[in-house]
Amino acid sequence: FVSTWIDNMGMGIMVMKGPWDAATKTMTLKGKMVDPGTKGEIAVRETFKIIDDNTQEMEMFITMPDGTEFKNMNIKFTRKK
Questions:
Q1: Per-residue pLDDT tens for 67-77?
Q2: Chain-centre distance for alpha carbon 40
């Protein structure tokens, strides 16, 4: 799968790629983005999970200089009934 992300805080288009895991109903996507503060590239990981027929959740993580991950985004999508 391929995912793209564009927003007004970034420095371009972020592209992530990764597989679908049918057992957990989750895509795990990896890519790189330009850090607006340093202008250097940093690693990014995104998970997109199907929770049920009406709910999906996306989490995005960036890799810090020391190698640890920092969750910088969490979006829960809920179908309007």
A1: 999 999 999 99
A2: 18
Q: Do strands 26-34 and 55-63 pair parallel, antiparallel, or not at all (unpaired)?
A: unpaired
Task: Give the chain's length.
Answer: 81
The residue ranges of the chain whose pLDDT is under 70 are: 10-11
CA dihedral of 47, 50, 55, 59, whole degrees rounded to 10: 0
Q: Which two tokens stand for residue 57?
A: 């959740």
Chain centroid to CA 19: 13
Dist. CA 77–CA 4, nearest whole Å: 17
Cα distances (angstroms) measured from residue 27 to each of 24, 61, 75: 9, 14, 15
Residue 10 pLDDT: 65
Residue type, 25: K
